[in-house]
Design goal:
With about 280 residues, the protein is mainly beta. The chain is built from no helices and 15 strands. Helices cover about 0% and strands about 45% of the residues.
């Protein structure tokens, strides 16, 4: 199944693997790339790392008159456990955006696991094209994965692929990209980690911060706890994805740990969600 999707912009981070069993193949689609200017202050995408502590006072919306961050999130790590009848029973890209930065071309998107089985070992193959004489010419490929190691049944997870480097004089800029997804049945990590409803966002200068707290409701310590934050525009289309480990990264049974992640690129930001994983 192919479909044409308009393009926007985003922020960055990564993801990885999981288990075994039945192999699933997603649907490919060719996506045109909008030629959108990158803001001058953003020389490269921001990696999602824990930032130094800053003031708790949100910056007035007048600092960013066209971008008003929400003060709260849909901070839920539990997806709606129902199938989407409008989509194939498989892995499917809900939305994706592509843009060029100084160090290459990036794709950010969101992948839906529209099956009753948790899916891991996710591989997303991006194929890049340059339009020459009205026809797309393939100029390269790059593999990526979701930021969640395993996507729950009927759940979704963001992904970032890039940077993709084009060779000068070999072709032109990326004008289309095509995504093809595969995965295998996987095993979910600990499900006792809960994002607290106090998670919020605020801006300091040109930076958007998302912070919150995660509780370990289990009877054992949770290790390598990571918060994955997906940023959306008012229409619910993904515009970016960032992640960070909690501080501390191990949360004792019954304990709490905070997280804070930031990005300098947040065009048309409206709201966010937080997912969490740990061992």
């Amino acid at each position: 199944m192919k479909k044409i999707i308009p393009i926007l912009i985003f922020s960055v981070l990564l993801a990885a693997c999981s288990s075994t069993a039945p192999h699933r193949t997603g649907n490919s689609r060719r996506t045109p790339v909008a030629q959108i200017q990158v803001q001058p202050s953003q020389s490269q995408p921001t990696t999602a790392v824990t930032q130094p502590t800053v003031t708790d006072t949100p910056i007035p919306s007048s600092v960013h008159p066209t971008i008003t961050p929400t003060s709260s999130s849909d901070a839920s790590a539990t997806p709606t456990s129902t199938a989407d009848p409008s989509l194939p029973t498989d892995l499917d890209v809900l939305s994706s955006q592509g843009y060029a930065m100084n160090d290459g071309f990036y794709i950010v998107g969101e992948l839906l696991n529209n099956t009753s089985t948790p899916m891991g070992n996710i591989n997303i193959l991006a194929t890049y094209y340059y339009q020459r004489a009205g026809k797309p010419v393939e100029i390269g490929t790059k593999n990526g994965s979701t930021m969640l190691d395993v996507i729950p049944a009927y759940g979704q997870a963001p992904f970032v692929i890039g940077p993709f480097h084009t060779v000068m004089n070999n072709a032109g800029p990326v004008t289309y990209f095509d995504l093809h997804e595969t995965g295998q049945a996987g095993t979910l990590s600990t499900q006792d980690l809960v994002v607290q409803p106090t998670a919020n966002s605020y801006s300091v200068g040109s930076w958007l911060y998302v912070r919150g707290e995660i509780q370990n409701n289990g009877t054992m310590d949770a290790k390598f706890v990571k918060a994955i934050i997906t940023l959306y525009n008012p229409d619910g289309t993904i515009i970016g994805a960032i992640s960070t480990y909690t501080n501390p990264s191990t949360i004792p049974a019954g304990g709490f740990a905070s997280f804070s992640a930031s990005t300098e690129y947040w065009p048309n930001f409206d709201h966010f969600t937080v997912e969490v994983q740990g061992q």
